[in-house]
Automatic annotation (TrEMBL):
One of its GO terms (molecular function) is GTPase activator activity. PROSITE patterns: TBC_RABGAP (PS50086). The gene is Tbc1d12. Pfam families: RabGAP-TBC. This is TBC12 protein.
Length: 454
């Protein structure tokens, strides 16, 4: 009863259009209509007898911060009058401590201001470089692609990263279309995938299809697996999850591919590759690049889980690992830490899951230029970047670290480490080392083959 004061004024009749929550079929009337700010101010002055003076414009803060912008705002004051005054020595000491604190704060602020200016200068410089590079790519390189793609000037410009506006076009040209896929062919396989989805929804599960006599090699039944993996593709972007603008598009590209290549089907990791292509290309062009990219020897070996080929790639990687990072190589050997523990995830997603998206796209730029060799060179660059940290870790911590790389990794640091990696062993390049491993394997198979029957 004491918590609520009695109403001294009669309630005004409710306005029919007044909004409010309907309670038991009735709309409670509003007690007070919205007042003007001047009326509220006048009522306040009449009630308190004080005039409200707004603060001067200079005293108002546009942005409220939870922390002071500067520690130099601290003021050195004497003790209150009701307390004993400071002694001369204490006052001098406090003054000296205060001056030192203010000077240190000023140094820190000047350093942070210089750092901010440096970041802004680098950002402006990067934007100018991208703009000038885009003009060169659009006006000079792309119209004369076949004649200029292998020139030293273009390769150097390529290394610096492709401008986002031409990235998709350059990727398409670099990957090529050896499979001769057309947009019409994509529509055919997409319609087939939609028919499969419809049959799945009608039959209930893909187990019914397998029971009906579907071949084990027929991996078109993996269409349902795509739905589970799409939600885990770049979850921080929220554009590929259900309800997002690219969810159905990603589903379509992956579904069409499983029907186009039932011998490969859908494998975890494909969604990341397709998603990166969708962000840079139109739907049909993304599918064409996706199918041709997965048809490359390295990707085909990994996505078809060809163990013998995968072991050759790991062996070739270790040759250059020992050549470039001998200390870390021996450290990994001491823990029996093999490349498959960390390389599989990197290769399956072409680093799009392991690295920040903008950095992964730059890795893709040079990968489209140099081919599979650059994927393994990038892996060695990552190991070189974190060599000092990895040398202090044991097996479990190394595996955990390489599975989830730090998020603050920058393109400048990584690409400087990649540039320092020499892809040459005993005057043999990557392709030659890999070819010799393949040759040794074939000769070994011949030596271990059973003798012919008489």
């Amino acid at each position: 009863r004491n918590f609520f004061t009695k109403r001294t004024k009669e309630l005004k009749p409710a306005v029919q259009s007044a909004p409010g929550w309907k309670l038991f079929g009735k709309v409670p009337p509003r007690e007070n209509l919205p007042k003007d700010s001047k009326i509220i101010q006048q009522e306040y002055e009449a009630r308190t007898g004080r005039m409200y003076k707004p603060p001067p414009p200079s005293a108002r803060r546009k942005n409220i911060e939870f922390e002071p912008l500067s520690t130099t705002a601290l003021i050195l004051e004497d003790r209150p009058a009701n307390l004993p005054a400071k002694s001369v020595e204490e006052a001098l000491r406090h003054r000296q401590e205060y001056d030192e604190m203010v000077a240190e704060a000023k140094k820190r602020e000047i350093k942070e201001a210089h750092k901010r200016k440096k970041i802004m200068r680098e950002r402006f410089k990067q934007e100018e470089n991208i703009a000038s590079a885009m003009v060169i790519w659009v006006n000079e390189i792309l119209p004369n692609w076949e004649g200029m793609r292998a020139t030293r000037r273009v390769r150097e410009l390529w290394w610096q990263g492709l401008p986002p506006s031409v990235r998709g076009k350059v990727w398409s040209l670099a990957v090529g279309n050896e499979l001769n896929i057309t947009p019409e062919l994509y529509e055919i396989f997409l319609s087939r995938a939609k028919e499969r989805w419809k049959s799945f929804s009608e039959t209930g599960s893909e187990n019914d299809i397998e029971d009906a006599g579907a071949s084990v090699a027929d991996r078109e039944a993996s269409l349902e697996l795509i739905k589970l993996d799409i939600s885990r593709t770049f979850p921080s972007l929220y554009i590929f999850q259900k309800g997002g603008p690219y969810h159905d598009l990603l589903h379509s590209v992956l579904g069409a591919y499983t029907c186009y290549r039932p011998d490969v089907g859908y494998v975890q990791g494909m969604s990341f590759i397709a998603a990166v292509l969708i962000l840079n290309l139109e739907e049909a062009d993304a599918f064409i690049a996706f199918a041709n990219l997965l048809n490359k020897p390295c990707q085909l070996a990994f996505f078809r889980v060809d163990h013998s080929m995968m072991l050759k790639y790991f062996a070739a990687f270790e040759v250059f690992f020992e050549e470039n990072l001998p200390k870390l190589f021996l450290h990994f050997k001491s823990y029996s830490l093999t490349p498959d523990i960390y390389l599989i995830d990197w290769i399956f997603t072409l680093y799009s899951k392991s690295l920040p998206l903008d950095l992964a796209c730059r890795v893709w730029d040079v990968f489209c230029r140099d081919g599979e060799e650059f994927l393994f060179r990038t892996g060695l660059g990552i190991l070189r970047l974190y060599e000092d940290i990895l040398l202090q870790m044991d097996f479990i911590h190394i595996a955990q670290f390489l599975t989830k790389l730090p998020e603050d990794i920058t393109s400048e640091k990584l690409f400087s480490c990649i540039a320092a990696i020499q892809m040459q062993n005993s005057n043999k390049k990557w392709a030659q080392v890999f070819a010799s491993l393949m040759k040794d394997n074939k000769e070994g198979d011949k030596n271990h083959s059973p003798a012919p029957k008489s």
